[in-house]
Amino acid sequence: MLNKPNKMIMKKSLILAVASLAVIGCSKREIGVDPNAADPNEVRFSTGGATVTSKVTTDAAGKSAFENNDLIGVYAVLDGKKLGTDASAAFPTTLQYLNKKFKVTSVKAATSTDPAVATFTANGTSEKMYYLAGDQAWNYYAYYPTTGTLFSGMPTLTTAAAAAQFVKTDNTNTFYNQTALSTSSSLYPGPIMFAYHGTADKASSTHPVNLTFKHALAKLTLDVTVANSIGSVSGASDATIMMYGDGLTEGLTFDLTKATAVGAASGVYEVISQTTTGSPANLDGTTTASAGATPTPADTKAYFFEAIPDAGGDVQHFTVTGYLVPAGCVAAPGTGTLKNVEIKFYIGASGSMNLQAYTAKLDETAGGSISGKTNYLPQIEPGKEYKFKIELKQHEVTFTGTIEDWDVVDNTSTPIPAE
Length: 419
Fold this sequence. Notes:
Layout: H1 7-24, E1 45-47, E2 57-58, E3 64-65, E4 71-78, E5 97-108, E6 117-122, E7 138-144, E8 167-170, E9 193-201, E10 209-211, E11 214-215, E12 218-226, E13 239-246, E14 252-255, E15 272-274, E16 303-305, E17 317-324, E18 339-347, E19 356-361, E20 385-392
Parallel strand pairs: 1-10, 12-20
Antiparallel strand pairs: 1-6, 2-3, 4-5, 4-7, 5-6, 7-9, 8-14, 9-11, 12-17, 13-16, 13-18, 14-15, 18-19
């Protein structure tokens, strides 16, 4: 006859069994894995791909690269949906992430063949993004920078928004004035970029998500040589540099909804364009400056660029860079509308006898010509860097001379008496 189990022994066995299950059920974080490790269900981002472009600094491979603490804005929409469209018919709109901020926390060094890769982390707990259950996926839109006159108004709505709310127009700032990049608060001193990740991203996908940023603006680089005959050129006070032409206007429009594909007519991305609303001023070089004075952004409508750097003495060779709003892209590539484009250098103190103006013509229609090329700046396309080598020189004044002989008035035929 078998003995009945002792109730105390059964109770201990149950306790041990529960304890064993508890050990088996422990998460990895409870048995030695870093408790601060990213949640496997959290969305993470990095830049990647051989074509990645980003900030103005360059890496070892000569490509653009983000820097630590750079901040991007990210929108997540359900796979197959477009930014700004109402998805409420199929899913609750609260499942969309709108304008979440991610910060660069590390930049992997570039190699001779691969560019630098930046890794982003949510800029605070409230900025984190997570994957959906049920094998649903995200698409992403991103932009940089996240601060400035234009971008401070990007929507952070918690409901689906009309596409028009992702279009920002700025007619009032002086983006074209780039003479005080480090101090002016009315413009953004650098590139504007965007990214679109249209491949379905879900929890089972490879992480992190690679974002390939594209430049929304164009870049202008001037390699300038100053002839010795011009004399000393040193410091911002001695030089003003500006660009102007027919077909350039003040103001810009940023449309993040256009990040999905190139324009049908232009063949290029048109996330940023010249504004057509209101009455934008023409950047045609028209000036109200008094005679003999160096024009300023206040009295001349033109792109103004960072002035010649001060090297502590004579500066006879220097590089000037700036950013341009795309223009002339409404037509097919190669048939743009720009003309009479010029770069003007004012050298010397304003209002003084030493003030001189030098003009370089960048467009065939204004009489410019480089090695037989014609119309070599018919349009300004996003993502392109336009480089020009310019020489400022003086033509020496030379003289020849003749002496015109005396015109003789001869009154010697009759003596004049003097009595």
